[in-house]
Amino acid sequence: MNLKLKNLSNDNLISDLKDIVCRERELLTKLLHYLKEVEQRRLYAQKGYDSLFSFIKALDLALERLDPENKPSNSRRKPSQPKMKPTLTPAPECKAKRYIPQKIKRQIWRRDKGKCQFKDKRTGQLCHSQYKLELDHAWPYSLGGSNTVQNLRLHCRTHNQYRASLIFKSSHLLQ
Ligand SMILES: [Zn+2]
User: Fold this and answer.
1) Domain check: are 55 and 86 in the same one?
2) How far apart are CA 127 and CA 125, in angstroms?
3) How many whole angstroms from 15 Cα to the centroid of ligand 1?
4) Within a domain: residue 1?
5) Going residue by residue through the chain (175 aa), what tens digit of pLDDT does each one get?
6) What are the φ and ψ backbone dihedral angles of 52, each rounded to 5 degrees?
7) Per-residue b/e over 82-117, b at no fewer than 16 CB within 10 Å?
8) Model-level pTM?
9) Looking at the structure, do residues 30 and 66 belong to the same domain, yes or no?
């Protein structure tokens, strides 16, 4: 995206920013309503997923695979990536944002030592499982969380799903 912000006056920059913040809030509310409706109609089941979470996860992966910068032709890409045809077409503006550079992924992997970083609130202990590790956004991506080292950590499949269900429940409370 080429926004040419340098040409904007200070006033225009601020008023545009206000406008964007406002629209982002509207979009977020819309997103939560759509998620709720998909959940209620159980559309994820029709598409062959066992939960709304797996459906959204597949959508996420599809978006990541469709990213032109994330193609296997990229020489640094591992050849062992499983091939899965994306079934959902993303809006063009989503593509760039989905991309998490390999460098960031490696940094997180090193920092988290290849183990799940989920912390049990009662015992204060980290899970440290190595089962199907995935990147988890501390502040959810769908709520504007960024793809930075600070906002990402490794979670095992169980805790990734657990977190997603919490996020989804809290999105219902916003209704
Ligand atoms: Zn875990």
Assistant:
1) yes
2) 6
3) 43
4) no
5) 567 788 888 888 888 888 887 777 777 777 887 888 888 888 888 878 778 877 777 777 666 665 555 555 444 544 554 544 444 444 444 444 567 899 999 999 999 999 999 999 899 999 999 999 999 988 888 777 889 999 999 999 999 888 888 777 776 665 5
6) -60, -35
7) eeeeeeeebeeeebeebebeeeeeeebeeebeebbb
8) 0.46
9) no
Range of the domain at 18: 11-41
Count how many domains the chain has: 3
| Same domain (yes/no): 60, 90 | yes
> 82: CA distance to ligand 1 center in Å?
23
Instruction: Extract the tokens encoding 144.
Output: 């504007």
114 Cα to the center of ligand 1, angstroms:
11
Both 170 and 109 in one domain: the answer is yes
Whether 111 and 166 share a structural domain:
yes
CB 103 within 8 A of CB 121: no
CA gap 117, 167 in Å, rounded: 17
